[in-house]
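The instructor's notes for this session suggest beginning with a concrete chain rather than abstract definitions. Hand out the sequence below and ask the class to guess, before any prediction is shown, which regions might be ordered.
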Amino acid sequence: MRLNTLALICGVAFWTTTCGNHSPASPATPSSSAAPAAPTSATGATISGNVAGMSSNAQFRTLNTSLTVSVTGTSVSSGVDSSGHFLLMNVPAGHVELHFTGPGVDARLTLADVADHQTITVTVHINATSASLDENETDDQDHNSEIEGIVSAVGSNSLTVAGKLIMVTPTTVIVHGDTKLKLSDIKIGDRVHVKATMSGTTLVATKIEDQNGAAKPGEGDDQGDDHGGNNNTVELSGKVAGRSTGCPVTFTIGSTTVVTNSSTKFEDTTCAALKNGDKVEVKGTKQTNGSVLASKVEKDD
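After discussion, reveal the predicted structure:
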């Protein structure tokens, strides 16, 4: 069955316009160590983002200008401008549902435990009728941050997640489930949840949770096959859509986001050769945000 999937990616950006303006100003360039000051809602929270994806597709670029993001049950809404920018301010605290609408799009995403005066930045993958959270960053007035996303770089005392450079100290707690890890156990392509505080202009991690389903020290080495006993193990089949650039690669099958890392096995294809439209079978582990971390990607003829 042919599935037409749009990847709507809301990235890190901050603006000074109000949520009702359908033409927000261009975002400031993000810093790798500290985000620029974000506009703060007088009440409620601020949710900022940038809608992008399939930028070479003229039809998708046209669709951007017709998209609207609103908060269900409130009058808070924002149009998405031709650059993909949107901003929601004065978002009520509590469980919040974002409603994305446009030609052929009617998708909803729930954010839990939104608090007053928080600044929230999200990355969302959306198809015609559903949305899944890919990256999420929350900042509060006490300089505490929580960042969830894919690791793009690992240093001797730092890692980069969702474009943010985060310092790691000897007191940083690093875990995978109940297993304690070292920073060297974290790999590029891993999905992590980081709790951090701002020290001057630097984010310093207090806790890093590795959310990958791949085996970690002391947890066994078999990552390729489904042996049962793991309720989060899933199998998918379908056509690749919304492929990210480079490797490790992220793509969608239907409404499900598939994430790969350095441990993912590719059969009858390679990460570099994988392209949109390829029919594949995926085995992996379902993550807390609804995506699947692939242990194996096999191309079908």
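Then share the key points. Residues 1-38, 53-60, 213-230 have pLDDT under 50 and may be disordered. The CA atoms of residues 171 and 206 lie 7 Å apart.
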